[in-house]
Amino acid sequence: xxxxxxxxxxxxxxxxxxxxQPAQAQGAPGDYKLLAGDKIQVSVxxxxxxxxxxxxxxxxxxSFPLTGEVQAAGRSADxxxxxxxxxxxKYIPEPVVTVTVxxxxxxxxxxxxxxxxxxxxxxxxxxxxLQALTLASGTTPFAKLDDIIVIRGTGAAQTTIPFRYSQVxxxxxxxxxxxxxxxxxxxxx
Length: 189
Hints:
Layout: H1 3-20, E1 39-44, E2 47-55, E3 61-64, E4 68-71, H2 77-88, E5 97-103, E6 108-113, E7 119-122, H3 129-135, E8 148-152, E9 159-163, H4 165-169, E10 185-188
Parallel strand pairs: 6-10
Antiparallel strand pairs: 1-2, 1-5, 3-4, 6-7, 8-9, 8-10
Helix pairs in contact: 1-3
């Protein structure tokens, strides 16, 4: 199979699998939990000085006037809105706060090894293994497709999850085509 044909087959398989997933598996937009590196816009109605775009720092927090440090990582935009409104009640009667996710820059997966374009890829909203391989422009002719692994976790708590490309593309063992989590590394030997 030529490299061009291999890429086309890979892209088509990723699209077929994405379409076959139930809507629940792709996640509801309101369920998104913020991560360090994400950008949000915080606005307080009728308060020009309390409108800004902030980036969540590596410690998972951001600073906002009158509220101090706000924990954002691991929380939804609505959770943060409620938190800021309650903190502002000391200064503003009945504050109306809006928190909008501007950019999900913190939600990334990494694809390395025998792929055409290794690198970090934004998960918007979620990706499975085949989709991540597609974003990396497919595999090289030297890739060991049935030895692909996903490394998940941090520090000593890392685990590996096997991915057998030939089984998944043949429509077998589709449970291997897992939804990736932020920070996952797909290794194509």
